């Protein structure tokens, strides 16, 4: 029994990083699983519902922007993955993690580069992590409407960078990420940041 693990949200300037773990049921296959980035938002939501209904087990966890700043993005991603795996209701024989590095836990582990597109359990984890994070960013958009988090999910789009320049960072911005750190450095000197 294999558990697939993947993350969502390593690159954004704001919000938490999410991770999910999924153990699929071979008796209840789910058609159309793929890397979440290759799927439309609507298709991701449909598949996320099917995964939640049919998987033998799954768990979703996150690490906050403050934890990302304290640890660095890689270690915060590992923390989110550890939280997800520790929240799993069943014990898998092996954990397969998307990418070339994995956190430490007391389970046999395999790293699979490109696993989110080739291993169904990792694809499923990718979809759950992405849809959970997107939902959280939509909630943050209601709390901080001036940034448009529901449109770009915190990624450094031109609109997000313009909002950051106009309004400065909110508590959900990752202060250790260069565009936010640059803004804060300019702010502390009393000059205006370049876009």
Can you offer a commentary on this structure?
This protein is of the alpha/beta class. Helix content is 46%, strand content 15%. The chain has one domain (2-141): Nucleotidyltransferase, domain 5 (2-Layer Sandwich). It has a five-stranded mixed β-sheet, sandwiched between helices. Strand 1 and strand 2 form a beta hairpin. Helix 1 (41-54) crosses helix 5 (120-143) and helix 2 crosses helix 3 (73-86). The longest helix has 24 residues, at 120-143. 44% of the residues are buried.
β-sheet strand percentage? 15-25%
Structural class by SSE content: alpha/beta
- For the report, how would you describe the main beta sheet? 5 strands, mixed
Number of helical segments?
8
Q: Kindly state the number of beta strands.
A: 5
User: How many separate structural domains?
Assistant: 1
Unreliable sequence segments: none
Topology as a string of helices (H) and strands (E)? EEHEHHEEHHHHH
Would you tell me the overall average pLDDT?
A: 94
CATH architecture field: 2-Layer Sandwich
Instruction: Please name the fourth-level CATH homologous superfamily.
Output: Ribonuclease H-like superfamily/Ribonuclease H
Q: Based on CA inertia axes, which overall geometry fits?
A: globular
Rg calc: 18 Å
Q: Can you identify the CATH class?
A: Alpha Beta
For the record, give the distance between the C-alpha atoms at the N and C termini, rounded to a whole number. 49 Å
Determine the fraction of residues in helical runs and give it as a percent range.
40-55%
